[in-house]
Each structure stands twice: as structure tokens, then as C-alpha cells.
Amino acid sequence: MNKRYIIRSAICLIFAISSLILVYFEIPYKEIIRLILFGISYIIIAFDIILKAIKNIFKGEIFDENFLMCVATIGAICINEFPEAIAVMFLYQMGEEFQRIAVGNSRNSIKELIKLKPEYANIYKNKKTKRVDPSEVEIGERIIVQPGEKVPLDGIVVRGKAMIDTKMITGEAVPINVSENDIIYSGSIDLNSVIEIEVTKKFEDSTVSKILELVEEATSKKAHTERFITKFAKFYTPIVCLLAVCLAFIPWLILKNDITVWIYRSLTFLVISCPCALVISVPLGFFSGIGKASKNGILIKGSNYIETLSKSKYIVFDKTGTITKGVFEIQKIEVRDISKQEFIRIAAHCEKFSNHPIAISIKNMYNGKYDENKIEELEEITGKGIHARVFFSDTLIGNADLMKENNIKFKQINEVGTIVYLAINGEYKGYILISDQIKPDAKDAIKNLKKIGIKHTFMATGDEESIAKYMAKEAGIKDFKAKLLPDEKLIELEKIIDKGKGKVIFVGDGVNDSPCLARADVGIAMGGIGSDAAIEAADVVIMTDELTKIVDAVKISKQTMKTVKQNILFALFVKIIVLCLSTIGYSNMWLAVFADVGVTVIAIINSMKILKKKKGD
Asked: Cβ–Cβ contacts within 10 Å for residue 57, how many?
């Protein structure tokens, strides 16, 4: 708890208690001394609230909670209710302190991410290391990471083996082992051994920088509910001030009785009507939800996406790298009038400049050297394959559509997997069967999504019908569309959105998914640490490739919205009851303080429970 607050509160209480004790002693000028003691006590505890109210008045923000507390307590002093005025302000300050503590706690999980930011990098040149700022390191340069140090930049391990803690990046609690040629991400922590890394991204493009950007974005975007509460408070406060004035004078003018009774009721009405519980607890609830998600390796870019996630009924998945591992392996090679070695050599040269998973699997199969001078006129045909001049021969490599389009005579293969056909100078030379594997958690993720309210699952893929059908069945996805180009995938997504039967989530992992990630009500990027385009387009980033994290994200969003709604209903219920009691004279300042500060504290505690709850609760 804030030391300044504790000291100020202690001094305030000493003066207030001293004033109360003087009642039992007979001394000269006793009442004047008591008033002075009460006055000092009030100024000590209320000074910053009064100052805020005055500053806000000059800014044009008159009707806020600071103004209400000042009017209510100064009014209480005017009708000689000093103890109640001090008690109300004291308890209000206590509520504010609880709020500061709660906000601090809810930020802790996000502050942990900020700690990821590396302070230095050990650049390695001429067999010497030099400590520099990470922003000074260029792509291709090498850095040394010692045990216990943070990895400052994304790169590839070129020397050494180590155990790496990636918990703050991916949410994965178990450390992983890395060795030569393994990719390593900034923000990870080296646990046990010296490693040398070749830098592949500048600091501003590194994983840790992207995460920090997402955290900053997340705290700046407001949900519809949060915006509504802010607007509500601006209209609500002047209305209750007007009602309080009416309560102070209209009954007195009609009944002609003691005006102090109605002023007291009016001031009590003002204290009760402070919208603190709503204004504080609603944004805090969303912030706690974002913090809870980040601790689990899920970065939600704003509270508006928490609200949308909780209402989602449809989910559309990309296949490769999302439902499947995206790691393709060659299962079979059938050739005609060419050796398998030559077949692979030509195919690998055609795919030399492609980063598609299928291209990578073909290149992995080829162990020889590349002669880039023998690759000419290379053209990538979207959704079909590659047309190039390789080793002085006109070469086509791709799917059946590419063969048909170029009038190649071939036998179409119907095995489950991706079939890559090869033709040289118009003659068919064989095919490669490449297959992907479904992620081990895919089936459980789809099943659990249905359990928590997702009504419809759909898979959109550019793959062949047979592969899409097989993978959809394996994952438990009801509907799918195959052989879709990126623009066709977007059209299918828009058809689902246009049905208007609920919010739609799209889950993807790569550049070609960016249009769909941006168009969906909520775009979720899988394994976003590897795809800058996905991070930019998505609203939620899963820092691992685990599909079950999507279930966690939806559960957390539902928990958050449930808590926010509880806070709103509880605050309004208590305030309405106590306001009615105040109007007819059955309430006092103490009950008013509970209706304001007490309800606020309860709502804050309820919001903080989001961080403590398990995902399945």
C-alpha cells in the first residue's frame, strides 16, 4: 500500500480522534479548537480530491466523482456534520487506494512482458565480444548469449546447445532444447549454456518488439461496453446533480419544514450516485482479462476483441499450419523416363526461391548443390505451381490444374495427400506424394469449442478435395471448402459473415490468410511469432501453434464478460435501492459510502478474480 497514503491517513485520524475526544473535556474555546482540528483533518485527507476537482472544472470536466465527493462532504460540513464529512472522504480515499492496488496487480502479468525487453546484446566480431544496444545489431551479424541472459534478437543458432525458457513468449512452461540451425526468438532466456546466434531480424522487427507493440495496442482499444460506461458517466453525473438540487429545495418549499433535513438527504443522494463502481470496475475487468490471456501466451489486441470473442458462434479455419502441422514430408515418388535423383534435383531447383511448406519439403529431400545460373524465367502461378526454364528445359511443377492448363498428358492420382506433378518440355515425368499431419490437439480443440458455445466449424483450404475431406473428418470439422485461392477463401468467409447468425472467428497462420484475418469479426493468428503479416492483420495472436489456446481465449473472454456484467448489475441494483431509501429519509452518509466506495471495492475484487480463476472455471 502507498506509504504516502498511510502517513496522510494516520495524521488525519489523529486530528479527527483528538477533536472527538475534546467533547469529554472542559477547556476554553473548545468548539473553536474542535473545528480547527476537524478542518485540518479534512484538508489533509481531501486536499488532492479538491485539487483534482478544481483542475477538472478548468478543463471543462465538471461533473466527475471528485466534484461529487467535494460537494457532498463540503455540504455535510455546512450542516455541521464534520465527522461524517471526514469519514466519507476517508473511506472514499481508501476505495481509491484499493483501486490503485487492484490496477497494479492486474498490470503485473503485462509488466512481465515489458521485462522481456533486452537491455543489451553481446555482438561477436573478430573473436571478441562487445556489449551494444540491440537496435545497433544488423541482420547477419552474430551475437553471444550467456547462461541467464535474455536472447536480445531473433536468429538462428550457429554454435552451441542450450535449454531455453520461452514461457514469456509462448506461455509454454516447459523449457525447450535448441542446437545448431534451430530458430530462436528474442525474449527467450538461456538457462544453461553459451550459444552463438546469427541475427535474422532487426530489433524493431523482432518477436519481443512485436509483443510490446501488441500490449500497447491492447491497452488503447476499448470495448463497446467500456465506451458505453464512459459516455454513461458523462450524462449520468449532471442528471444526478440536478436531482440532488431538486431534492434539497422542492420538498422544503412544499412542506415548509427544516431545510437542513432535505439538504442532508440531497448530499447523501450525491454520495450514493457516484458512478465509481461502474467507471472503475468495467475497464479493470477487461484489463484483467487481457492480463490473464497474456499469461497464457495469448495476446489480445484490445478489450473490444474480448467482447466479440465472447459472442462468437462461427469459426473458420485455414488448414495448412493451422489444423495441420504444416510440416510436409515426401511419402512417395513415381517417375517416368527419369531417375528419382534427377527428378528431385529438377524439382528442388524449380522450388529454390519458394518458402511454401511443400517447396521446403522438396528442397529438404535434395542434398546436392544449387546452380542458380540454370534457373531462368521462373514464374509462380498462384494456387497451381511453378513454370520455369531449368537446366535449359521448359519445366512445369504443380497440381493437376497446372498440367491440364498446359495440355500435359498425365494420369491423375487420387491418393490422400498433396500430389505434385512434374513435366519437362511438355512430357509428363512423374509425381511426388507429399502429406501433412494433423496437429495432435486439433480434435480436442474442435470438440471443446463446440462445448463452450461455438455453433459451427468450417475449414477453408487451397488443397485438393480428398485431402480437405480427410483432414476435416480427422479434426471433427463439419463443413469445408477445398481448392480455394486466397480471394476465394475471403469470399467464403464473407458468405458466413453475411448470414448474420453470430460473430465469426477466422484462424490462420500466414501471409495468404491476412485478408481473412482482417475481415473476420475476430482474426486469430496461430504461431504469430513466425508471421509478421499475420500479427499485423490479426486481432488475437496465439504465441504457440496449439489450437487448444483458442479454447482458452474464448473461455477467458466469456469469464471477463460475465464478471463485467455482474459488476454493472450489482452496482446499479445497490445504488437504486439506497437512492430510494435516501430520498425518503431512511439512509445516511454511512450507507451512502457503502453504496459508493463499498460497491466499488466489491466490484474491483470481483474483477481481480479473473486473474485467479482457472481457464475452465
From this structure: 15
CATH number for 393: 3.40.1110.10
Residue 390 confidence (pLDDT) above 80: yes
**Could you say which of 318, 463, 509, 539 is catalytic?**
318
- Which residue, among 188, 118, 113, 203, has the nearest Cα to 157 in the 3D structure? 188
Q: Which spans in 452-547 are helix H?
A: 465-475, 486-498, 514-519, 532-537
The CATH number linked to 480 is 3.40.50.1000
**75 pLDDT higher than 60:** yes
| Tally of domains in the chain | 4
If asked whether residues 431 and 443 sit together in one domain, one would say no
Q: Assess contact for 589 and 84: CB atoms under 8 A.
A: yes
Is the four-CA dihedral 51, 56, 62, 66 of positive or negative sign?
negative
Same domain, yes or no, for 74 and 127?
Answer: no
**What does the alpha-carbon distance between residue 91 and residue 575 come to, in Å, rounded to a whole number?**
17
31 shares a domain with 15: yes
Are the beta carbons of 556 and 609 closer than 8 angstroms?
no
User: What residues form DSSP beta bridges with 541?
Assistant: 299, 525
Q: Give the pLDDT score at 277.
A: 66
What pLDDT was estimated at residue 106? 46
pLDDT digits (tens, 9 = 90+) for 157-178: 999 988 888 766 654 545 778 8
Asked whether residue 452 falls in the same domain as residue 366, the answer is no
At residue 184's C-alpha, the angle toward residues 178 and 189, to 5°, is 80
Q: Do the domain assignments include residue 115?
A: no
Nearest Cα to Cα of residue 93 among 134, 59, 57, 43: 43
- Domain boundary, last residue among 183, 215, 247: 215
* Domain boundary residue, one of 215, 241, 273: 215
Q: What is the average pLDDT score of the chain? A: 81
Q: Are residues 91 and 228 in the same domain?
A: yes
What would the pLDDT profile of 544-602 be if each residue is shown by its tens digit? 778 999 999 999 999 999 998 888 888 888 878 887 887 787 777 667 767 767 777 78
**Cell matching residue 266:** 440531497
Q: How far is CA 33 from the centre of its chain?
A: 56
Looking at the fold, whether 152 and 246 belong to one and the same domain comes out as no
Where in the sequence is the domain holding 359, given as residue range(s)?
329-435
What count of residues does the chain have?
A: 617
Asked about 532 being catalytic, the answer comes back as no
Residue range 188-234, pLDDT digits in tens: 888 888 999 999 988 887 776 766 665 555 445 545 655 555 566 66
